[in-house]
Amino acid sequence: MGSQKCGGCLSGLLIPLALWSIIVNLLLYFPNGQTSYASSSKLTNYVWYFEGICFSGIMMLMVAVALLVLESDNNCQCCQSENCTKKYMTLLSIIFSGLGISFSGYCLAISALGLVQGPYCRTLNGWEYAFEGTAGRFLTDSSIWIQCLEPAHVVEWNIILFSILIALSGLQVIICLIRIVIQLSKILCGTYSVIIQPGVI
């Protein structure tokens, strides 16, 4: 019963993380609250992968709802025995948790690539990825951020928001991994094992 409550709490945590991922990803489209850059496609290409909106957001919300339903006590009886039903629900929980890892892992990877690549901005040479060839070294050297003339403070904007997306999706990966460990322990440790009553044979 304790592991079931723990699993339900973990699944519930995925919902606010997914909602925050959607919000943070949306903010990436509007540097300094301006919409003109999105409408003219003058944003880093990694924001168009919709990693926080679709994968770490909407898809993860669907996974969280599915896991909460599987953890509830009102599951339909899909087998003749309760033991069989619990095993089936545990297997489904592992599958959905695995999907959650793939969705949030995608967001984490794309966000990391966007962070290392740097923003698409206007420099003295025109619109370009000013720090693409630095292999992410610009992240620790704020003195060169002034190369981006427009949008204003776009380097800080991208670093903060992509870092938040990495943190949010990373937490989702950890939660889903913990859920898989919990569900596997139920199977391997015999929580749902078939008990043969004496005298049945």
General description of the model:
- The protein is mainly α.
- The chain has one domain (2-73, 81-116, 154-188).
- It is 61% helix and 4% strand.
- It is built from 5 helices and 2 strands; from the N terminus they run ααααββα.
- It has a two-stranded antiparallel sheet with strand order 1-2.
- The chain is elongated and about 70 Å long.
- The two termini are 31 Å apart.
TL;DR?
The chain is mostly helical. The protein has helices spanning 2-27, 36-39, 51-71, 82-117, 154-188, and strands at 120-123, 126-129.
Helix/strand layout:
Elements: H1 2-27, H2 36-39, H3 51-71, H4 82-117, E1 120-123, E2 126-129, H5 154-188
Antiparallel strand pairs: 1-2
Which terms would index this structure?
transmembrane; membrane; disordered C terminus; L6_membrane; 5 helices; 201 residues; Transmembrane 4 L6 family member 18; two-stranded antiparallel ribbon
Got a strand count?
A: 2
Structural class: mainly alpha
The SSE order reads: HHHHEEH
Rg, Cα atoms, Å: 22 Å
